[in-house]
Amino acid sequence: MFACVKAPGSCGELVQGAIDGRSFLVTCPIDVYSTATLTAHSSLLVKAGPKVQAAVARTLTYLAIADPAFQLTVQSVLPQGKGMASSSADISAACQAVALRAGKRLTPAEIAAIATAIEPTDGIFFPGIVRFDHLKATASRYLGEPPPITIAVFDTGGEIDTLYFNRRRDLMGLNAAKEKQVRQALDLVSEGLRTGAAELIGRGATLSAVANQSILYKPCLETVIRLAEDYAAVGVSAAHSGTVLGIMFKSNRLDCYEHCIAAVRQACPEIRFIKTVRLISGGLQIAGVNDE
């Protein structure tokens, strides 16, 4: 038996916060992946970290797979602790690979239930761009397909523990305080996805990033936003519980792209350019499956 599943990472979230006391995020999937590969083995061998091991155990129980005999390996170039959905990508790819071993396919909702039992999770394994309850997985809503957007990803430094962050005692109150801006940001992004207007998506993402400064401050964000405007970007996304920022450009308007990166590097030497990515539709990719 062989199975290979790819899951996208993210450049933070397009929006994150709470409305009427219910937490949610809007996914920002990108074309950088974690890959789970499952092959036949004499016994169960999971070559991955403890979160993936826990997800595999929960998947085996959920699917009632007894006496598993396979090797699972997870490979990823997504950095940890940055808000790029590295754990969510690892876990979701691993869960689906195990399901394929049993001749089944998990729905995104089933994967979400398994993942959120381990830690708060991104919804990058849902198709398209979605609004998703990252804490309880009780609700998801498809918002649309993204227009062509290219993102320059920067790291503001350090690492954030997602589990610890979401246990903050002051988080509920801080989310309530920014609810007005989050509602506006969600409306802008939703309309942008409905109409294919990258400018509205960028405006909404920027509004949510600024609103989140009271919860997790990003150094140089104001300067990055100003430079993004100067160089014809549509907006700036942020990891609301991570360290990355993304300057968003229409993919057919990249004349100023490299100049913008250079300007940010000069104005904000404390943050680091990571790479160029594309905003994509979310969802798992089954790269291969067959019997050996």
From TrEMBL:
GO molecular function, one term: kinase activity
Domain GHMP kinase N-terminal per the UniProt entry, residue ranges: 59-119
UniProt keyword list: Kinase, Transferase
Domain of life the protein comes from: Bacteria
Pfam families listed in its UniProt record: GHMP_kinases_N (PF00288)
SUPFAM superfamilies attached to this UniProt entry: Ribosomal protein S5 domain 2-like
Stated name of the protein: Threonine kinase
Organism encoding this protein: Dendrosporobacter quercicolus
Lineage: Bacteria, Bacillati, Bacillota, Negativicutes, Selenomonadales
